[in-house]
Amino acid sequence: MGEIEPAKSSAPASAGGDSNYNRLQQRLKGFAEDMDMAKTLLDQLSTRIRMNASRAHDVASKAADTEFDKQPVALASAVSVALGGMGVDVKRLTEQASKVSAKAADAQATHQRLYESLHRVRSRRRERTPKPGAFNRHS
């Protein structure tokens, strides 16, 4: 077996500067991309599970046809059934990853639509913008 390598960070790089708008846009895009990657990997896993379930079923059938001992045949059949159930669950996860990816992309587009104009105005002027609540009266 090979060495286990630490996972590469898929966190988006800093947007640079002091722009919360850019950071959030980058994070939402990165999250949507990560969920798309998860969907791709789950699709691959689902294919492998289906193939292994089919192989286990074939082994159980061939063993049963040759009047092999009943216990290994039953175990191979149980493995096939378990893998089939696992395949259904992975398919659900794949669908959820796809939905989350779409929602992240929608959130990014909505954020961009609502705040891009304000970001352009704020980023072009030299004066600093007061923090929210700076002009609230304190009683």
Give an account of the 3D structure.
- With 139 residues, the protein is mainly α.
- It has 2 helices and no strands.
- Helix 1 packs antiparallel against helix 2.
- It is rod-shaped.
- The termini are far apart.
- The mean pLDDT is 85.
Supply database-style keywords.
139 residues; mainly alpha; 73% helix
What's the quick description here?
This protein has 2 helices and no strands.
- Biggest sheet, in brief? none
Specify the number of helices: 2
Provide the β-strand percentage band: under 5%
Principal-axis shape: rod-shaped
Report mean pLDDT, rounded to a whole number.
Answer: 85
Overall structural class, as computed from helix and strand content, comes to mainly alpha
- Regarding quaternary structure, how should these chains be classified? single chain
Q: Are there runs of 5+ residues with pLDDT below 50, and where?
A: none
Total count of strands:
0
Rg, Cα atoms, Å: 26 Å
N-to-C series of helices and strands: HH
SSE topology sketch:
Elements: H1 20-65, H2 70-124
